[in-house]
Amino acid sequence: MMGEREEDDDIEEAWLQLRPMEPLPSQCCGSGCSPCVFDLYHQNLARWEAARASKDRSLLHGPESQSCPSKLNPKTFVAFCISAMDRLTKDTYRVRFALPGNSQLGLQPGQHLILRGIVDDLEIQRAYTPISPANAEGYFEVLIKCYQMGLMSRYVESWRAGTIAFWRGPFGDFFYKPNQESSPEQLPWSYQEKTRFGHLGQDLIKELVSCCRRKPFALVCGSAEFTKDIARCLLCAGLTEDSYFLF
């Protein structure tokens, strides 16, 4: 009887070691991703509970992915190699990641990716929107601003060409249609509070800058004339030249 009880205890301990670990708050980027790291945790926990109840460890493994190893996946982090890293300002980097062959990232406007980093044995995740053209072949680029006390900033500043970083995505379901939105109520709820309508001139730029809780970093994309006008408005609103990026 004693031997059987010890064997049962060993089996129970083995199952407990296989139980998925609940993510830390730092592992959620807070961008409303679907699935979130907590969604994935609950999916894995349900799979573990079913496997434990039936005493079948093979149920712990989900269906095998048939996708290319370097193809984005919203549920699993995929490795991408840094092919180039340019320091644009003292705290801002443009980083290029290689894609296999002449493949394209294929993101839509408004979509973003999640980057995973580990600093001091703590896993952290942050959301970034690629700045490369949607039809760029063989690569994608992100612009990352680093902060003095930022954990992800420490991770990014350790990068060099050849470093492997892990991304998952894409996320975001706000697909912009020109001249279709005329009021905040027509936007997804998560965009309503932070969206402004009107001619993008000096007054609106000042309003956008003043509503930020801390000094913002602006990404401006458009024609040469448009970016020149917006840069002038940003300077008049109190930003410095190292606080915006034109492309």
From TrEMBL:
Does NAD count among this protein's keywords? yes
Q: Where is the FAD-binding FR-type domain?
A: 75-177
Q: Which InterPro entries match?
A: CBR-like (IPR001834), Cbr1-like_FAD-bd_dom (IPR008333), FAD-bd_FR_type (IPR017927), FNR_nucleotide-bd (IPR039261), Oxidoreductase-like_N (IPR019180), Riboflavin_synthase-like_b-brl (IPR017938)
Record: residues binding FAD = R126, Y128, L143, K145, M152, S153
Matching entries from Pfam families are given as: FAD_binding_6, Oxidored-like
Q: Which reaction does it catalyse?
A: 2 Fe(III)-[cytochrome b5] + NADH = 2 Fe(II)-[cytochrome b5] + NAD(+) + H(+)
- Which co-factors does it depend on? FAD
Tell me a Gene Ontology molecular-function term this record carries.
Answer: cytochrome-b5 reductase activity, acting on NADH
Class in the EC hierarchy, top level: oxidoreductase
Q: What is its EC number?
A: 1.6.2.2
Keywords in alphabetical order, please: FAD, Flavoprotein, NAD, Oxidoreductase
Q: Which PROSITE patterns match?
A: FAD_FR
Q: Report the sequence similarity comment from the record.
A: Belongs to the flavoprotein pyridine nucleotide cytochrome reductase family.
State the protein's purpose.
NADH-cytochrome b5 reductases are involved in desaturation and elongation of fatty acids, cholesterol biosynthesis, drug metabolism, and, in erythrocyte, methemoglobin reduction.
Q: Kindly provide the name given to this protein in its UniProt entry.
A: NADH-cytochrome b5 reductase-like
Q: Which organism is it from?
A: Saimiri boliviensis boliviensis (Bolivian squirrel monkey)
